[in-house]
Amino acid sequence: MSSVLPDAVRYVDGSYEIDSHILSQRLGLSVDRLRAEMRRGSVVSRVEKGLGNDAGRTRLTFRYHMTVWSIILDQHGMLRELPVSLVRLSELERLSTGAAPDQRPLPRKG
User: Fold this and answer.
1) Which residues, other chains included, contact 48 with Cβ-Cβ below 8 Å and sequence gap of 6+?
2) End-to-end CA distance of the chain
3) Tell me: the pLDDT tens digits for 66-95?
């Protein structure tokens, strides 16, 4: 995991806001294209609150087609990012339905 700029994410009126320049870069889009894809519904986000050992942590996940990027906000307000990843179509279907995860590793680019 690597650090994200501390002001990249803000919590405003019960919702998280992320800097569009950072998000567009991570998803491989220009800012204008990001906004257009968001209007189309092609950019999807998810907020997950930690439970048990993860209590106090929040994971924000952003998906554009097969590209996924996540940020973890810990209980001390520190942001960490997970590497951008590509997911298989079967994994996208699982994410959209909430089914159990597919445990097979992603193929590596050679």
Assistant:
1) 58, 59, 61
2) 23
3) 899 999 988 887 888 887 887 765 555 555
